[in-house]
Amino acid sequence: NYAIEHNREDLDFLAQRLAEEEKQKPQQERSEFGLIEKLDFVVKNDFERLTYTDALTILKESNHNKKKKFQYPIEDWGMDLQSEHERYLVEKHFKKPVILVNYPKQIKSFYMRQNDDGKTVAAMDILAPGIGEIVGGSQREERLDLLEQRMNELNIPADELSWYLDTRRFGAVPHAGFGLGFERMVQFVTGMTNIRDVIPFPRTPKNAEF
Asked: Contact 4/43 with Cβ under 8 angstroms?
């Protein structure tokens, strides 16, 4: 909202540039949203909240999936969602930003807190139009026995992470956190299509001297 109210001239410039680029794309690849419309979309809409399992059902039963329009077809429960799936939920199905919760534990890190069903973890992603995931977060596993059990399942040597286990062994409290991808946020606000265009210190393969 701040950008819309205080940087309108900059946004108008970016919106015009992006609109010209969109005209060069095939019709099926064009975005439904202009830049300013996309920002308004997030500011003015409530966020839809649902589980990974419900989202997978929606995606699997969608005409988009049945007509094989996804590059990565929706198949079994437990598959990792791609950006195209996330954008479909936001832009086509709900037409509002989406918060996905309770992901399968096999596609998330070992330190995320297991839910009571034993199959999912207390993790969430916030999905935005144009890019998909923009925020990711989770509750951390504070129960030492379950943490060690999960590490054993994944063949993670306990001695290599003894310092981490000690943080649970000698006292831990339930806690959670999230990460906001700064480059993704800049990409979202400016409308850039390639995240490399918004990285302040470009990283290219085999270019680091040290």
From this structure: yes
